[in-house]
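Input chain follows. Return structure tokens only.
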Amino acid sequence: MQSARVLLPAIGQPPRHSGAFPRPFARLRAFLQFIFLLALLCGCAPAAASPLPAPTGTSSPSAAPSATAASTATTAPALTATARPTPSPSPSPSPSASPSPVPTYLKLRGVVTIEQAVCHYGPGAPYLYKYGVYQGSNLEVLRRVEGGNYIEVQAIGGSNACWVREDYLALKGSLTDLQPVPADQVALPLSPYYGPPTGVSASRAGSRVTVSWNALVLRAGDDSEQTPYIVEAWVCRAGQIVFEPAGTYHTSVEITDEPGCAAPSRARLLAAEKHGYTLPVEIPWPAP
């Protein structure tokens, strides 16, 4: 039996049968097989295709806005309207209370009714003597001391006033027509050489107040030879504060000060020498 021979086709040559590729295509197939084999040997794989970019002008509903774009966006400043101040209406003047009428005081005339009256520098008998006025003299009456019984007088058309008791003159008018002046506002001649007394104290026993102080030592020739000390006291009498100047040659004096006044009592001490009075010193007045 004759053995059959099997003929293997050469690589790259298609077998000759009815289903074989045409010659040009057989070569292409062999080339592709070679390329594929080479790729397997090199360990290379074709690069993955890059995704196509999204079409310009379309946006995904879930896409978040870019933070960079938000931070670099320039916002135009808003125009702020400047408000004009509204003029406030001028306040209408509130009705004020009618001012109290200012009392009108007069200067009166008076005639001295006693033979001779002493006219003092201050509104009381203990003050230094200034000059005398005589019976029948017509005087101009200027003021009255507040809380006391002395009036200020001078010659008609004159300028050298002094103080005299009101009951020594017959007034042409009423005392209430005269301007009242507090006693501590009456100008007294001042001593240029001596200070106020020292060691001033006061004590009370019921309605009696005793005031004490140290003696004022004068140089020879400076003694006024009149009352050297005056306690000017504003004290309570029958429910009213009255002015009472208490003069003494001693270094203490007693003054009556009753309870029952709304205003507190007070007092001050002055010393005299021939040139005038020392500055006053306030007395620590004990309450009733």
